[in-house]
Amino acid sequence: MGFLIKLARKNIKDIEVFLEAAVDKIIEGKIIAFPTDSVYGIGGDPLNLKLIERLYEIKFRERTKGLLLLVLDIEEALRIVEFNDKARILAEKFWPGQLTLILRRKVPNIVPIEVSAFQNTIGLRVPDHSIILTILKILKERGHFGGIIGTSANYSGEPPSVSGEEIAKKFLRPIDLIIDGGPAASDIPTTIVDCTTDELKFLRIGKITQEEVLNALSNKSA
């Protein structure tokens, strides 16, 4: 297994040196595992093609399925995707939080199309978790894109991981750095909504329900 650090129930200021080290790993092209406000994720620099290939290999993931991104804020999202009116309403309502939006890629784009499985869309969200948000903030402050790949920490088709220790035991191929922030905030993956067509497509329902999403849109237009 990779190097595991336990940071549960610690103040962000007290663990910032470890998060700086995690950012170093990301910039070096390494894979890290981390807690989010949903299940645990694994990922790294979305601009690094070798890293992207390694993630697909580690997860045994089909190359026809894209990898989701976690970004610091809407400003960083706007660097790589186009927001229509519905998408902006949903982002303003549910970000940071457990709603992943599928949006059209901007052209040209800093994120290689391999991340999106050669599709013209990118799935992304702003997480609501202090550890991963601090990592994204440090990346941006260092002049890098404030986003990382944030795919669920599991082999493709298997249940997601809910702790750093579970990741360390589960993966046969080593993760370079595992951040254990305690039990996952949720054992349910995020809700995924495709906003690229006139009618929303609900690709997965998590804690945020279809009714909540539709109500957010209807309330805004009322």
Question: What does it look like?
Answer:
Helix 4 crosses helix 7. It is built from seven helices and twelve strands. The chain has a single domain (3-221), classed as DHBP synthase. It has helices spanning 12-27, 49-59, 74-77, 85-94, 130-141, 164-170, 210-221; strands at residues 3-6, 32-34, 41-43, 69-71, 81-82, 99-105, 121-125, 147-149, 151-152, 177-180, 191-194, 201-204. Strand 2 (32-34) and strand 3 form a beta hairpin. Strands 4, 5, 6, 7, 8, 11 and 12 form a seven-stranded mixed beta sheet that branches. It has a five-stranded mixed beta sheet with strand order 1-10-2-3-9, sandwiched between helices.
Overview in brief:
With 222 residues, the protein is of the alpha/beta class.
Q: Give the overall shape.
A: globular
Q: Output mean pLDDT.
A: 94
In helices, the fraction of residues equals: 25-40%
Main sheet properties: 7 strands, mixed
Q: Identify the CATH class.
A: Alpha Beta
> Beta-sheet strand percentage?
15-25%
Structural class, by secondary structure, is alpha/beta
Unreliable spans: none
Which fold name fills CATH's third level, the topology? DHBP synthase
By DSSP, the count of extended strands is: 12
Number of helices: 7
The CATH architecture is Alpha-Beta Complex
The secondary-structure element order is: EHEEHEHEHEEHEEHEEEH
Classify the oligomer.
single chain
End-to-end distance, in Å? 53 Å
CATH superfamily: DHBP synthase
Tell me the Rg in angstroms: 16 Å
